[in-house]
């Protein structure tokens, strides 16, 4: 049995030594069968040198993929999953917010429950501001209502997959990868364990509010076409209303003759409908842009060098 552990790293130089030591200490019983796959996601600090050092000290267990620039965590995960050879593949952050002791629980669970294929950790208690928690909860409520697949609230990328799940995930060719959705989309039976998020060992989170917002939007567009349906539906309703209004006006003019009054109404209607048109064109644009990105068929990441 081989266990691959995939670790995306973006500016984590100060965490890597302690991460390596911690994971080695925690997984000591499995150590002979472990491969650690670090992905340097275009860090601007010394992350790659640190990884080189770790690799030189432990060539048996460590592999390093070095991206040519920052392609994002999702791309890093994909590169790691593709490289992995393990029967079990775990994903964990490099900042020690996710305690490796849970990996043992995950692996033991999969060993003894053959009908499950994936174990994911979720946080019961969010250790962040109320506003952010509110937005995250709203996101989950919304996307679960409008998407066909289920998004489990607060489930993280911190998880362990069986080989068959990994093989299915790396077959998905899409460029805009929203891994939370992809993990659910491929199906299989997932078991959820609760975990407590630790404080970041060092460095700071790379997720600004704006980055999270676009990430969420990306998820909605990747896994739902409801916004498009809403815009068509609103269009139909507006057409029907204007048809009725037109009929009324024609009859009125025939009976009472022409009147100049009604200018404010006209302006209001024009403003409202043109506003709606712009809004829905924007939605349409998002999907067209997505199609454009996908059809360009560019690689999801570019590897500059690798150590293995
Ligand atoms: N990460 C990455 N590429 C990025 C951003 C983040 O590989 O563009 C990695 C980062 O090094 C860390 C993990 O993804 O190992 C989670 O990032 P972070 O700790 O910033 O997220 P948070 O824990 O705040 O959700
Ligand atoms: Mg973190």
UniProtKB/TrEMBL annotation:
<keyword id="KW-0812">Transmembrane</keyword>
<feature type="domain" description="Glycosyltransferase 2-like">
    <location>
        <begin position="4"/>
        <end position="146"/>
    </location>
</feature>
<feature type="transmembrane region" description="Helical">
    <location>
        <begin position="233"/>
        <end position="255"/>
    </location>
</feature>
<protein>
    <submittedName>
        <fullName>Glycosyltransferase family 2 protein</fullName>
    </submittedName>
</protein>
<dbReference type="InterPro" id="IPR029044">
    <property type="entry name" value="Nucleotide-diphossugar_trans"/>
</dbReference>
<dbReference type="Pfam" id="PF00535">
    <property type="entry name" value="Glycos_transf_2"/>
</dbReference>
<dbReference type="InterPro" id="IPR001173">
    <property type="entry name" value="Glyco_trans_2-like"/>
</dbReference>
<feature type="transmembrane region" description="Helical">
    <location>
        <begin position="261"/>
        <end position="289"/>
    </location>
</feature>
<keyword id="KW-0472">Membrane</keyword>
<keyword id="KW-1133">Transmembrane helix</keyword>
<dbReference type="InterPro" id="IPR050256">
    <property type="entry name" value="Glycosyltransferase_2"/>
</dbReference>
